[in-house]
Amino acid sequence: MDEEDGGELGAMFPTPEGKRRLLRDVVVSFVLAGKDTTSSALTWLFWLLAANPRCERRVHDEVSRSPDGDVKGMHYLHAAITEAMRLYPPVPFNGRMAVADDVLPGGAAVRAGWFANYSAYVMGRMEKLWGKDFLEFSPERWLRDGDGDGGEFVAVDAARYPVFHAGPRVCLGKEMAYMQMKTVAAAVLRRFSVDVAAPAPRMESPPAYEMTATMKMKGGLWVRLRRRE
Ligand code: HEM
């Protein structure tokens, strides 16, 4: 197959109508996969920053130091978003059906037709994986020097943090998602302070969530934006 035919994929959708449908489905799946996930993550991020003013100040310091559009170097913001999704993963549970008998790495046997499910929400709150402070919002846990000053973001294995899934079907839009979320958060926090009206920003009484395909904050997040001097 040459380029004009669309390569291997083009061979599977040989007619112009087939190609148009394929393109439509790709666009729709990108919009569906990318819209509610990133907005859910940002909603929890803004609430968590309001509940942790020390972290909010550090994000604000970082985004104020960096020029518009340069989100790559924002390690603290990257860590804060990652930490928000540890506590509130946009895709809280997920699973697969085994097509054949198999044995999982942990030794559990799975028969063909069985479902094997996991919860990124539960895994994000396991003391065994994150330590005694697992319920705290601590972006510092993702930074190499541990205190955030000039600290570099260090990712962990996807099997420990399966927020974007893992393996060959891992999220295709992960880098784009971080880019979008960091750009939006930086643009808002550089110019405004975000006063959360409801739910109250207190870690000891976290907001209720709604479990749909993505994890939404029940009732949404009510904020008042104040332009910074
Ligand atoms: C915070 C944001 C996001 C999170 C947490 C997230 C999470 C996930 C997860 C858990 C999966 C695996 C679903 C499954 O196979 O059961 C997935 C797949 C996928 N995501 Fe994302 N996603 C995010 C943003 C995005 C964005 C912005 C895009 C595109 C612009 C995107 C495109 C995709 C695509 C195309 C797949 C399917 C990959 C495949 O099956 O090979 N995602 N995502």
TrEMBL record:
Gene3D superfamilies from the UniProt entry: Cytochrome P450
Q: Which InterPro entries match?
A: Cyt_P450, Cyt_P450_CS, Cyt_P450_E_grp-I, Cyt_P450_sf
**Named cofactor requirement(s):** heme
The organism's place on the tree of life at top rank: Eukaryota
Q: Name one Pfam family in it.
A: p450
A biological process (GO) annotation for this entry?
Answer: lipid metabolic process
What keywords appear on the UniProt entry? Heme, Iron, Membrane, Metal-binding, Monooxygenase, Oxidoreductase, Transmembrane, Transmembrane helix
Which GO MF terms are attached to this record? Answer: heme binding; iron ion binding; monooxygenase activity; oxidoreductase activity, acting on paired donors, with incorporation or reduction of molecular oxygen
Give yes or no: UniProt keyword Iron: yes
Q: Where does heme bind?
A: C171
Family per similarity comment: Belongs to the cytochrome P450 family.
Q: Which PANTHER family match?
A: CYTOCHROME P450
Task: Quote the protein name from its UniProt record.
Answer: Cytochrome P450
Q: Which organism is it from?
A: Oryza meyeriana var. granulata
Give the classification, highest ranks: Eukaryota, Viridiplantae, Streptophyta, Embryophyta, Tracheophyta
